[in-house]
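Re: the 144-residue chain
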Amino acid sequence: MKYSRRRLLGVLWLLLLAFLGFLLLRSCGSDRTAAAATNEQRVAYLNSLGWQVEPEPVETLSLTLPKELEEPYQSYNVLQRAQGFDLEPCCGKTVERCTYTVKNHPSGKVCQADLYICGGEIVAGDILCTGEGGFIAPLAFPKD
């Protein structure tokens, strides 16, 4: 049985497209959301990223996001999207922010880990170091 070169290339393109579609669907299902209904789940999540935190939050507060993101939420959401989160689906909803004291930041600075929870899942987060030379960073543990 002999196949034309054109038909073979068509089949290869279809297989490639199917494979790329599979990867796209798989990556869409593997976002960074994590169960966070309990304090233990939130602490476990931070530990899984390499952070050692005090077991109880220093602050927990509820806030309602605007129906459309404006500054400073838009800039903050750029950081969130870069790490696989997105605040937009939570617009107009109440989210809970839990703040934990970080005990092992490589800089030696006093830092906090903020987790934003909506519907029992983590939808955003950051590492915040205040004071001189302060910064805000993604939740990924620094490799440096």
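Residues 16 and 22 are 10 Å apart (CA to CA).
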